[in-house]
Amino acid sequence: MELLIVCAILGILLAGTVPLFRGSFQGASLRRATGDLAGTLRHAHCSAVAQERAYQVGFDRTGGTYWTLSFSTPKEMADVAGAAGSDATIFKRLLPKDVVISGATYSTNDQFAVTFYPDGTADDGNIQLAVSGAEQNSAMAATPATTTERTAQPAAGAGQDAATIRIRGNDGSVSVEGVR
Q: Are 65 and 84 spatial neighbours (Cβ–Cβ below 8 Å)?
């Protein structure tokens, strides 16, 4: 009888910890995706300066993909802007299934791009990633020149479910906020 009581108590305790593990796995996926994307943006910035060419990181929200393009002239950039399959494409990556692009100051369209220029500047703005299903907790509204962000506070104990990548236009620097 005592053994059954102990087993019942352990079962109740273990059942309460399963949701905690799910959140930590999603948090790890968000951290990995944010780190990968920030690294791609930083690489595009460094490559633009070092190779004296414009680099563009394009995004497709619905497909959950992003890619890097390299251009030697502004006309070339205008001819293939946003073309993930163009000859200028260096690589294409897919976000994890449970991570989405939930906001961007660059465009409200499903496809948009961030450009890094040879002089070290970039298109100023933010990109927000969220755990799938958590994107309704936050919304972004801004123009490239004036960036403002509205983020709803998650419920107590909800954990970190979104991250913001900021690209500074004046120096092309890339920073990450909101990931633990």
A: yes
